[in-house]
């Protein structure tokens, strides 16, 4: 919510890792310029500051929406500004020259846990109203990821010699919308 990069003193020369999970996502404002500024330009500023450190790892949290928004290797930036700017940022990071740190991009599905936002928060608000919901017969399944599993995987990356640049992670099983709602009710 704030431009912490303006306060350069927040970046210590002796940092070990940066786990970059900031950016603009769940908003009604779909202006490309706002997504570009928050998701691309701030990351570019941050990575430039990181070059002045002894950082060993840079982990960037991205989105599987890139895959769902791509057609003919292009993302429609007007209709998918979030996916477009995340992909542009991934490309920036993957093409860095002379980096002395290990880069890992995590393409995440819907992440759930305490304090969740976005579509899942909207679903929680609907469930709280205790009205009948027409999702029982819908068979589509969602790939999801618990915040606990995400944190465990980030620790695994920091402690291991994983060499992949882009990694997709999720919980072991997919869930139907009905199963997700039943869990929310519990």
Tell me what you see in this structure.
The chain has 186 residues and is an alpha/beta fold. It is built from 6 helices and 10 strands. The protein has a 4-stranded parallel sheet with strand order 1-2-5-9, sandwiched between helices. A two-stranded antiparallel ribbon has the order 3-4. It is globular, with a radius of gyration of 18 Å. 20% of the residues are buried.
Rounded to an integer in angstroms, the radius of gyration calculated over CA atoms is 18 Å
Q: Which stretches are low in confidence, meaning pLDDT under 50 for 5 or more residues running?
A: none
Q: What is the general shape?
A: globular
Total helix count?
6
Mean of residue pLDDT values: 85
Strand content: 15-25%
How far apart the termini lie comes to 32 Å
Helix fraction?
25-40%
Concise account of the structure shown:
This protein is α/β, with parallel strands linked by helices.
Write the layout of secondary structure elements.
Layout: E1 17-20, H1 32-50, E2 57-63, H2 65-69, E3 70-71, E4 74-75, H3 81-94, E5 102-108, E6 110-112, H4 118-128, E7 141-142, E8 144-146, H5 147-159, E9 166-168, E10 175-176, H6 177-185
Parallel strand pairs: 1-2, 2-5, 5-9, 6-8
Antiparallel strand pairs: 3-4, 7-10
Helix pairs in contact: 1-3
